[in-house]
Amino acid sequence: MILTRVKSHHRPVVWAEDQDQQQPETITNADGTKTIISYKTNEQGKKVKVTQKIKLVVVKESVNKNVASRKKWAKFGSERGNAPGPDYRTTQIGDVVTLRLSTDWKKTEAAAEEEKKSEAAKAKSYSGIKCRTCGGAHYTAKCPFKDTLGSVDPAAANAEAEGIAAAEAAVASGKYVPVHMRGQDGGIASEQERRDRDDACTVKITQLNENVDEFMLRQELLARWPIVRCTLVKNRETGRSKGLAYVQFQSEEAAQNAIERLDGQGYQNLIIHVEWSKPKKNNV
Amino acid sequence: MRPLLLKGHERSLTQVKYNREGDLIFTVAKDKEASIWYSFNGERVGTFNGHGGTIWSIDVDQETLLAVTGSADFSAKLWKVETGENVFTFKLNTPVRRVEFSGKNDRLLCVTDEVMGFKGTISIFKLNYNDIYTQDSTPLVSIETRENFKKVSVAAWTYNDKYIIAGHQDGVISKYDATTGEFIDSAHVHEGLVTDLQFSKDRTYFITSSKDKTSHIVDVDTLEVLKTFETDAPLNSAAITPVKEFVVLGGGQEARDVTTSSMAQGKFEARFYHKVFGDEVGRVKGHFGPLNYIAVHPKGTSYASGGEDGYVRVHEFEKSYFDFKYDVEITAEATKNSSLNDDDDQ
């Protein structure tokens, strides 16, 4: 039995006091216990008095003579030469298992299972999914009130930035449209439109800060040039930016101008690189 | 309780045994080494290296001097437990499925498989403790499988080493005189392979387990089924607990079906039944494969299970295990105590 009481003295430590580290004081009590008082300095530089009350209890365990002798055996076979004591490679402690003995253990087990299930269902309902139609805990597409409450207001979607609107429109049409296939209106670009799209005006921005999103690119970095499209490359799983963006300008002059102005400039703590997305034939 | 996980084998366990004092655990698996562990902390003391195939069975004598292993390499080997030294090898015709020392340590039985045109046999060898390195390799008695009997899967010694009880592939239990090898009696108790046969402490009755999903307690003298425990999975092992009146059954789905079903369906649990009332009173989960063998500490304080998953799990019983009593038991004790008090008053 060890009782530890720590009392701390709130006063600044003098260097000289460090020297007189007192020897622990031992007092033998009448009831056979011992009190040990010692002093030490804690991490905050305060001197601390530690009082320990100790009761020594001798536990005698009688062990079979043969068992005791077997405990001293040297290891043999594949274990030869290994240090005494359990080896974590062969001996581990398992997870807690319960053995609740009762005649109706099946009932208690079933009840516990039921409780677990209901708790899991509860946790599921708080997963943060919110329907945009009715506000319930499910995806908008699976909303049971989809027909009665109607879909999301298309006017609100238009108010968003162009790129986001394009994505919304694609979603609204119920089909994913890859970025390179999207037309100016956000829908699927016709074959002709796609062929006519001028990659000559497209610029690649690399080494962007991860925190930069499309909105920032449009509103801050590229605000002074007329832009057709702006696409920030993101990790599909995590949704985090890869620090790479493709920007299509309305004219080649604007693109050229942007490269001259922005390449090598600092933006959000990083020096960004701006270059043509495809090597220029006439430039080479 | 937190079980000790003993991971010394690379393949599925075949047998797990405690020695008489219960301080050592002996385990064998389908790999070629037998492992010896301290039961109190799970430390591996050593291994018996030398077999060339699956070790099907292991046993240790009463004094923990010698151990015997029976292997699929057509041999049974005697080992000095303290050093792991192979002191003698009994050569047999077919794989050895079961080995067991007699209670007086003077004899050894080996059950051999019925393959390659050889009859399944229970061979009894005499043990020489004066010079353990020289043993008589010709058996004292050979009990061949009788006509119209299926092959023997398990066998064990009864009280006083008087009889040998054997379990057969078709669920029959047979009894032989241990000295002459003479057939005495048989009983058809199971519908499937008898997978295990373990004795009570006094060796007057034993528990069997079978692939037919049942387990029986059978009396040695009459071969009468005293108790039956029914489960919902094929059983691989059954053990009787000392101190408390329980039996522990282990098994689960066939090893070959394991990969095609979920763990919950596999029923890979140790089941505790009350030995007298026959009710299932609890289960212990943990293995992720069928339990191949269950051994209970001779003092009834813990049990070890070896699984198809290659783990041995040693479970120390908690206080609640020893405290558990049926209502009738509690009432009976209370009335007994009160009647004693009444006697004092008078």
Automatic annotation (TrEMBL), chain A:
Q: Keywords assigned by UniProt?
A: Cytoplasm, Initiation factor, Protein biosynthesis, RNA-binding
Q: Which Gene3D superfamilies match?
A: 3.30.70.330
Q: SUPFAM superfamilies recorded for this chain?
A: RNA-binding domain, RBD
Q: Which Pfam families match?
A: eIF3g, RRM_1
**Where can this protein be found?**
Cytoplasm
What are this entry's molecular-function GO terms?
RNA binding; translation initiation factor activity
**Domain RRM, chain residue ranges per copy:** 201-279
InterPro entries annotated for this entry? eIF3_g, eIF3g_N, eIF3G_RRM, Nucleotide-bd_a/b_plait_sf, RBD_domain_sf, RRM_dom
GO biological process annotations for this chain's record? Answer: formation of cytoplasmic translation initiation complex
One GO term describing the cellular component: eukaryotic 48S preinitiation complex
Q: What does this protein do?
A: RNA-binding component of the eukaryotic translation initiation factor 3 (eIF-3) complex, which is involved in protein synthesis of a specialized repertoire of mRNAs and, together with other initiation factors, stimulates binding of mRNA and methionyl-tRNAi to the 40S ribosome. The eIF-3 complex specifically targets and initiates translation of a subset of mRNAs involved in cell proliferation. This subunit can bind 18S rRNA.
Family label: Belongs to the eIF-3 subunit G family.
HAMAP family per the record?
A: eIF3g
Subunit notes for this chain? Answer: Component of the eukaryotic translation initiation factor 3 (eIF-3) complex.
Question: PANTHER family given for it?
Answer: EUKARYOTIC TRANSLATION INITIATION FACTOR 3 SUBUNIT G
Q: What is this protein called?
A: Eukaryotic translation initiation factor 3 subunit G
What is the protein's species of origin?
Wickerhamomyces pijperi (Yeast)
Lineage here is:
Eukaryota, Fungi, Dikarya, Ascomycota, Saccharomycotina
Q: Which gene encodes it?
A: TIF35
Automatic annotation (TrEMBL), chain B:
Designated gene of the protein: TIF34
Q: How does it assemble?
A: Component of the eukaryotic translation initiation factor 3 (eIF-3) complex.
Listed name of the protein: Eukaryotic translation initiation factor 3 subunit I
| Compartmental location | Cytoplasm
Q: Where are the annotated WD repeats, by residue?
A: 6-47, 48-89, 187-228
Gene Ontology CC entries for this record: eukaryotic 43S preinitiation complex; eukaryotic 48S preinitiation complex; eukaryotic translation initiation factor 3 complex, eIF3m
- GO biological-process terms attached to the record: formation of cytoplasmic translation initiation complex
Tell me the Pfam families matching this sequence: EIF3I
